[in-house]
């Protein structure tokens, strides 16, 4: 791995903090933001909409976050929020809580100083696609040195649209610490504009775009400070490991944790008194407002033996919204 931020992300230990949904200076056709992120002023910690500072801290504790990745928007309001949450996180978790910011603007010295003083460790710049290859001698070169002078680790994070050797030059010159190349992806938020630009999904892939990935790797992949982050790795490793971290923290004694990091339990609308009458140990079930949640294997057994009429096995994410993945009826 090439950065502490990437290492933590690969472990599933990085909380994603989205601070603002407006970009005043950019309108990238490949922007992946969906309806609940693009052109909104809401803040999200992972999938959780933030209403108060405690929501951010609770979400970080929920997943035993090792660090935080901050992204979203360009206006001054985004900077103010970023500094606020950086200070909040450092106060709660200390200096070992690694933070990095992904941004599409340069910002200038004063903003770099403010971010550094607030506790930011690493800043990843995403220059406009139309300027790739002509960044030397511009504010994009200047800001790399300014960021480092203000105590930040400067780097690039770019979508894998095409190969660009200028990023390698910045690495060799010592201006940027590393370059993270994300596999080019389609999402619900950008697929119409991507198709209009002539891009299509790769065969048998959920999000990866069918473009010259091999060409990018041929040109940039051998550099020791370039990391190519694939869509498969994001889903199979980063996301799954983050779910597993959450699941370990929030699971009840009777919840099963799957290899995908989801929680599995049983659900029935039977009278809770029935469980008491059958002598079911309290650690194997919990009574909700209008139903009972119980160890799935026990519910299955009770229905097979005629102790209960019906129910279902529920699989859901351990995230704050508790999205249900699958329901399997039992009768």
From TrEMBL:
Question: Origin, by domain of life?
Answer: Archaea
- DUF8061 domain mapped to chain residues: 261-330
Check the record and name the InterPro entries matching this protein: DUF8061 (IPR058374), MJ0021-like (IPR040087), rSAM (IPR007197), rSAM_sf (IPR058240)
GO terms of molecular function: catalytic activity; iron-sulfur cluster binding
Q: What is this protein called?
A: Radical SAM domain protein
């Amino acid at each position: 791995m090439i950065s502490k931020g990437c290492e933590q992300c690969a472990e599933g230990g990085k909380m994603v903090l989205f601070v603002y949904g407006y970009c005043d200076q950019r309108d990238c056709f490949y922007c992946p933001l969906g309806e609940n992120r693009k052109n909104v002023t809401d803040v999200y910690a992972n999938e959780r909409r933030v209403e108060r500072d405690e929501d951010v801290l609770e979400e970080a504790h929920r997943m035993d976050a090792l660090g935080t990745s901050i992204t979203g928007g360009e206006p001054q309001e985004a900077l103010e929020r970023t500094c606020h949450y950086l200070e909040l996180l450092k106060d709660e978790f200390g200096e070992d809580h690694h933070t990095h910011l992904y941004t599409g603007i340069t910002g200038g010295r004063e903003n770099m100083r403010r971010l550094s003083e607030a506790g930011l460790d690493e800043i990843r710049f995403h220059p406009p696609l139309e300027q790739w290859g002509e960044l030397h001698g511009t504010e994009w070169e200047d800001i790399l040195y300014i960021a480092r002078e203000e105590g930040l680790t400067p780097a690039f994070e770019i979508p894998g649209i095409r190969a660009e050797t200028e990023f390698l030059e910045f690495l060799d010159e010592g201006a940027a610490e590393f370059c993270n190349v994300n596999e080019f992806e389609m999402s619900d938020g950008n697929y119409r504009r991507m198709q209009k630009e002539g891009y299509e999904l790769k065969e048998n892939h959920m999000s990866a775009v069918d473009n010259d990935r091999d060409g990018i790797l041929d040109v940039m992949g051998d550099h020791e400070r370039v990391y190519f982050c694939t869509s498969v790795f994001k889903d199979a490793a980063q996301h799954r490991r983050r779910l597993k971290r959450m699941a370990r923290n929030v699971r009840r004694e009777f919840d099963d944790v799957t290899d995908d990091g989801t929680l599995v339990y049983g659900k029935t609308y039977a009278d809770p008194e029935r469980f008491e009458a059958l002598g079911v140990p309290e650690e194997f079930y919990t009574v909700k407002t209008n139903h009972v949640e119980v160890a799935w294997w026990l519910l299955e057994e009770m229905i097979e033996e005629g102790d209960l009429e019906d129910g279902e096995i529920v699989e859901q994410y351990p995230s704050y919204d508790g999205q249900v993945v699958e329901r399997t009826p039992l009768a």
